Amino acid sequence: MATPAQWFAGARPRTLPAAVAPVLAGTGVAAYTGDEVWWKALLALVVALALQVGVNYANDYSDGIRGTDEERVGPLRLVGSKLAAPRAVKNAAFVAFGVAAVAGLVLAATTAWWLVAVGLVAVLAAWFYTGGSKPYGYLGLGEVMVFVFFGLVAVIGTTYVQTETFDADIALPSGYAAIGIGALACAILVANNLRDIPTDRESGKITLAVRLGEVRTRGLYVFLLGAAVVALVGLALATSWWALLGLAFAPTAVRAGIIVLGRASGISLIPVLQQTGVAELLYGVGIFVGLLLAR
Fold first, then answer.
1. For tag attachment on the chain, is the N or C end more exposed, with fewer CB atoms within 10 Å?
2. Whether residue 67 has pLDDT greater than 80
3. Percent of the chain, pLDDT > 70?
4. Which residues contact 227 (CB under 8 A, 6 or more apart)?
5. If pLDDT is split at 50, 70 and 90, which confidence band does 122 have?
6. In this structure, are residues 184 and 283 in contact, taking their beta carbons and an 8 Å threshold?
7. Does the residue 44 lie in any domain?
8. Residue 132 reports pLDDT greater than 90
9. Which domain does 40 fall in, by range?
10. Spatial separation of the C-alpha atoms in residues 77 and 190, rounded to whole Å
11. How far is it, in rounded angstroms, from Cα 235 to Cα 284?
12. Closest by Cα among 180, 61, 164, 38 to 111
């Protein structure tokens, strides 16, 4: 049986910045207009964290029963390493999705009921990333869905539940923030899939990295870092130059980019995942603090 420490590792805590950063950025935009609602921001954070943990356990379960994780270079997988029964990991995913659903229902009840549909789609997207008979993560569509749900939906949704408006003075800055956060969230997945190209190709998991090959995948990673910078400049133009505090992510991102462009592979890419996650968190913190100072 897996120990509590192994269950914690199986939740992949290094990916959690991808859940925290969009809530910080979205709340920063709401605060800039003076419409922040802190308890709603906290509930949005619970939803984001629970969905991230849920998708991590769901991927562990689905990849494990397919045999994709039998030869794995990256972090611990509970099913693939046979430390936990598949049913137990599946149940853990459903518990996490349940926590997200409860917090999301409270937000919907106090904001707009159509948010229930958005939450349902998000849970389905989390499960069918690697679950079901035709998981979209095996078709090279993982980055698209990460950009949509951990970028656009997470940031814009966080802003909306607090401001309850899509007016241009809200929609434009939250859109820029969402694009930047989404680009960095995608960069985490790109780095992960770059590392796993050999094993994914062998197991039949056709990720975008497998389709593009190593050289173009490395280029895509750097492009996403650059897209985050461009989006941040757009956010600053739409709000205040204080938003450029988000550039705090740059030193960490540059270090990660150097490793990727240095043709690192396999286990040598593991630090890149952590660095990219930290970079995304710094990006979100910088936007949050900058827009608080600017209001």
1. N
2. no
3. 98
4. 179, 180, 183
5. very high
6. yes
7. yes
8. no
9. 15-294
10. 19
11. 12
12. 164
Span 94-114, average pLDDT: 95
Tell me how crowded residue 226 is: count the other CB atoms within 10 A of its CB.
12
Q: Show the CA angle centred on residue 193, arms to residues 145 and 153, nearest 5°.
A: 20
How many CB atoms neighbour CB 163 within 10 A?
Answer: 24
In contact, 116 and 108? CB cutoff 8 Å: yes
Position 122 in a domain: yes
In a domain, 2, yes or no: no
9: in domain: no
Residue with tokens 């660095």: 275
Yes or no: say if 145 and 129 are a contact pair by the CB < 8 Å rule. yes
Q: Which two tokens stand for residue 97?
A: 């999705």
SS3 sequence of the chain? CCCHHHHHHHCCHHHCHHHHHHHHHHHHHHHHCCCCCHHHHHHHHHHHHHHHHHHHHHHHHHHHHHCCCCCCCCCCCCCCCCCCCHHHHHHHHHHHHHHHHHHHHHHHHHCCCCHHHHHHHHHHHHHCCCCCCCCHHHCCCHHHHHHHHHHHHHHHHHHHHHHCCCCHHHHHHHHHHHHHHHHHHHHHHHHHHHHCHHHHHHHCCCCHHHHHCHHHHHHHHHHHHHHHHHHHHHHHHHCCHHHHHHHHHHHHHHHHHHHHHCCCCHHHHHHHHHHHHHHHHHHHHHHHHHHHHHC
The residue written with tokens 């849920």 in the block is 54
Instruction: Residue count of the chain, please give it.
Output: 295
Is the pLDDT higher at 269 or at 98? 98
Q: What token pair was written down for 63?
A: 């990849």
Number of separate domains in the chain: 1
Q: Return the percentage of the chain with pLDDT > 90, whole number.
A: 68
The domain that contains 184 carries what CATH number? 1.10.600
